[in-house]
Design brief:
Layout (H helix, E strand, L loop, with lengths): L6 H17 L4 H8 L5 H8 L18 H13 L6 H13 L2 H13 L4 E4 L15 E5 L2 E12 L6 E8 L2 E8 L5 E5 L10 E12 L3 E2 L5 H37 L1 E2 L2 E2 L4 H29 L5 H26 L10 H13 L4 H12 L7
Parallel strand pairs: 1-4
Antiparallel strand pairs: 2-3, 3-7, 4-5, 5-8, 6-7, 9-10
Helix pairs in contact: 1-4, 4-7, 5-6, 5-7, 7-8, 7-9, 7-10, 8-9, 9-10, 9-11
Length: 375
Amino acid sequence: MDFYFNESQQALQKEVEAFAREAALNPLRIIEEEQSVFCWDVLHELGRRGWTGVIVPEKYGGMGKGAIEYSIIMEETAAEMIYGPQNLVQAQQGLLAMGTDRQKEKYLPALASGEMLAAQAISEPDAGSSFENIQTIAEKSGDSYIVNGLKVHINLGEEAGMLMVLVKTANGLTELIVDKNTPGISYKKQDPIGLRSAPMYDIIFENCRVPAENLLGRDGRGIETFLAIFKLSRLGVASQLIGVAKGCLARAVEFTKSRKVGKNRVSDFQGIQWIIAKLTAELEAAKLARNKAAWLHDQRRKHDLETSIAKYLAGVVADETVNKAFTMTGSHACYRDKPYDRYVREVKSLLAGGGSSEVMLNNISREVLRPSYRF
């Protein structure tokens, strides 16, 4: 059992880390944070390096790698709080798992290169982790579906070249691919506290005609498509939480080692040492859980439980780290020109992505309470 990344994975980690540190210094990052706009430069550079197509097979222009490499990219970009290709991987995974050959040929090359963005349109005002109250309707009309409804909390909704939309048809929950500029789509930009480099929108569908060939998976079996996507994409969110926690902890610890208090430094005090030790242990546990789940995915083995555990542990340590950073740094963290308030806002936003910590606990308990589970 080898707990270390292989040579190519270690090289990828170093390359993404170096790129993210440089990209974070670009003045465009300030514009993104202040105005919540997507500046495209990071996406173009990720695409130029091939990282936007990390899980896409080489025949479609991708890297042909797996969940571990995907996790590395998401962790290292999040550590510097720059854009990571989460939305692209979600769409790619949906196409790879459930798409037709025509759909793969049409969309995967552009998604893999970063030429096209994608967005998931799932949440509604009365529907989040539970889909019972989904109100967006798609009525079959000849060789098309007519879509009407409202989706909310959609990162990069207007920038996306294609949307994957969860709707209700006469047969039940269904996923449709909706191309940008399809008549009947309008957008309302929101003002979120976090993830501001991936602007958030409400999306309104009014008599939006979608070709039946854009059905992703089976009509009435949209939950299959959803799960095929989110069993992988939750590892991306877990990796983002790990990345933010890592970046925040590293910065705060460096401060404790340099800040003098009388003849000592902040890091000399046992109370601070215990905080650092506890957070480091929790961060390592989250990384191990994430890596195990990613490995299981790449081995094509069941990983529902492991992915939920990874997302839960990553959320716990990230939330605790961004709060304890204020204990470690004191008033130093309480200013807008320091990153600590943004660490908090990023984590609070990421905790909801892919299901809250409470939803993860529900998932874990459901798996553990199955008759087949063995402790």
